Amino acid sequence: MIFDSPEMQILREQYAGRHLYGVPPIVLVDRSATLVQERDFLEHIISEAPADKQKEWLKKRLYSNQWEQYLGGWFEMMLFGWLKQAGAVRIEPDIVGTKPDFLASIGQQEIIVEAKAHPIGPEERHQNDLMAELLYRVEQIPLPYVIQIEALRLEGMKALDTLVASIQNWLNHEPDAPLILDDPQIVFKAYRPPEYDLTTFSAVQVLYSPEAFWIDPDHLRSSLLGKVRRYAPIKQSQYPLVIAYFIESSFFGVDEVVEVWFGKTTYTVDIASKNIEETKCDRTGINYRNSNISKNISGVLVFKRDSSIENRLPLQCWYIENPFANKPIDPLIFPVDSHFIATGRSDRGYEMTWKHIDYAH
Fold first, then answer.
1. What average pLDDT score do residues 288-295 get?
2. Average pLDDT of 58-64?
3. What is the rounded distance in angstroms from the CA atom of residue 303 to the CA atom of residue 331?
4. Is the CB of residue 81 less than 8 Å from the CB of residue 41?
5. Cα(209)–Cα(305) distance, rounded to whole angstroms?
């Protein structure tokens, strides 16, 4: 239905001459030899959806050349499959005049689950795509060299073409000197490390570590808060509401979501003993600053892609309990890697900790 359709064949032919840059995500998934199980899983999941949802996932999401649209549809489908492994699932039920993404029956609990994918920004994706294209093309150069890239910034495909030609010329004529380019279109610095045995290589090998970034969890705040606000009307229903939140960027994870939801953790340290005397939350998170609406959310399922997982669902998942929820649920019903749950309460609020359960046993 997805990969054997006429639309998919058109996309294959349309982008046959391109490797990575500017290629729609579904074409990259179609080409990948490592995503056979994922393709089979997507086919299985879409076959179990109603016809109107199938059409939406295909036409508006999976076949889109916009990563944001593709990622939103991909995550909805993966979440549908993940929830089905935990219990029964209905897609877009009519509840108090709204149609949330899913109504899941897990254990003895019926729960509304709303999906939200947080994609990386357009500039980060642009640079990632250019870097992937550059690595592929440079590693096709039939010269037995290893190069270490120390700085890299490109402004488009024309700059990439120029850089590849410069690298090839450098390695053909002056491989012992560093290559440094610095203009409005290209920032590049690389050298050839001397410690490698060049007789073991038949083509160029590239070593590159991206520059360090300052990680600010507030980048996640607006998208998560937007989801909380959008479905506040569901509070009128009898069902608890859980947000399923997929984070694409490798720079953010579940710890950043905890910080956005509750606030930063601060420590009081005894200078003489160097022991931590007190640990507390600064209460700058959504749960405190927007408590009038956040209490309508029972918890947050956080998902990250993990390509090392060799199965059809390449996802890691964590659950963050909302101890202030109007409709609390048992957080341990979710088969996740770990649960961030309330373990006690004092006059200063709730004590929260991570709890791991091995669901395989």
1. 87
2. 96
3. 16
4. yes
5. 20
What is the Cα–Cα distance from 79 to 42, expressed in whole angstroms? Answer: 11
DSSP alpha helix (H) spans, the chain: 6-14, 25-31, 36-47, 51-55, 67-86, 122-138, 157-173, 218-230, 254-262, 286-289, 291-294
Q: Is 350 exposed, middle or buried (0-12, 13-18, 19+ CB in 10 A)?
A: middle
* Residues β-bridged to residue 301: 244, 319
Q: Strand 315-321 and strand 349-355: pairing?
A: unpaired
Q: Quick one: DSSP state of residue 333?
A: G
The residues pairing with 337 across neighbouring beta strands, listed in sequence order, are: none
DSSP conformational letter for 321: E
How far is the C-alpha of 119 from the C-alpha of 69, rounded, in Å?
10
Token pair of 213 as six digits: 């970034």
- Give 267 or 27, the one with higher predicted confidence: 27
* Tokens 């229903």 -> residue: 237
Tokens 């590049």 sit on residue: 188
Single pTM value for the model: 0.86
Tokens of 16: 């046959």
- What is the C-alpha separation between 311 and 354, in angstroms, rounded? 26
pLDDT digits (tens, 9 = 90+) for 215-272: 677 788 888 888 888 765 566 788 999 999 999 988 899 999 999 999 888 777 767 7
- Looking at the DSSP bridge assignments, the partners of residue 117 are 246
Q: Which of 7-11, 82-86, 208-212 shows the lowest mean pLDDT across its residues?
A: 208-212
* Whether the predicted pLDDT of 280 surpasses 80: no
DSSP class per residue in 12-63: HHHTTT-SSTT--HHHHHHH-TT-HHHHHHHHHHHHTS-HHHHHIIIIIIIT
Residue 348 has which token pair? 């200063």
**Diameter over CA atoms, the chain:** 73
The DSSP 8-state label assigned to residue 335 in this structure reads: -
